Amino acid sequence: MPAKGKHRRTRTGPISRGVLAAGTGGAVLALPLIGATGAHAAEQSAPATRPAAAAAAQSAPATPAAKKDSATTTYSVVPGDYLAKIASAQKIKGGWQKLYQDNREVVGDNPSLIFPGMKLTLGAEAPAPATKAAPTKAAPTKAEPAPKAAAPAGKTAAVPAAADSTAAASNSSGYTTPVAGANVTTQYRASGSSWASGYHTGSDFQAASGTSVRSIGPGTVVSAGWSGSYGNEVVIQHSDGMYSQYAHLSSLDVSAGQTVTGGQQIGLSGSTGNSTGPHLHFEVRTGPSYGSDVDPIAYLRSHGVSI
Predict the structure, then answer these.
(1) How many domains is the chain built from?
(2) pTM
(3) Nearest to residue 173, comparing CAs of 222, 236, 237, 218?
(4) Which of 70, 144, 147, 227 has its CA 20 to 30 A from that of 46?
């Protein structure tokens, strides 16, 4: 059983909250144009009396491939990074999904788990779809039957149904607990010298490092990033004007301005910031910042969540 951690805050006054600005600093990887160099060397060394060598020189269409490689950029992950943030800062067409697709072998099966120092390739796969697009146009006769298959297209409605499985963890009001199991280890308003305010401003949930943390209800992400003693945190504004905060996360799956649903994963639990061990520090507030807290358990119950 994981250690029961709790949020620890210094006593130097109100915490200065801030959202980590997206840092890029990607290094350009200049790949040598080996194919192009070899092709030009073949042209210059081939005598005019040797047509076979001249024909080989005409195979220099490999030069455009080298140019494609030269457009490749490598980005080194830094602390606080997550795929959505990198994709936005680097202006990746297709967003974090495209970035993950291009680097799946490096990242692995979980797109939420990226680590400082990890090398991500930006734009390497972009030219490939263009070369495959031409052959698809070469079969116009097969493209016509496709519209007649409009009925199977209706089966794509099953995709939103699958997405609904994310919200299946929430009740009919669209609200749920921030982690599965919902075992509270430190109650709201618990008193002690560990907290600058003299009391615990949220509720701590037992959560081993890497546990899925989900939005308690539908809303819009106000901030997502590093926030001092809270470590990596996410703050979400809900339709009733209230805010929920999720702190000490090991990684983030969302970014500011993103719309989320109840039960949607927004990150993974951890022990970042001032924390004595892996857990989730969860708050409900009347405003986005520290000092406007209300009883988070009472708030969940008011939305029909059993806890």
Answers:
(1) 2
(2) 0.48
(3) 218
(4) 70
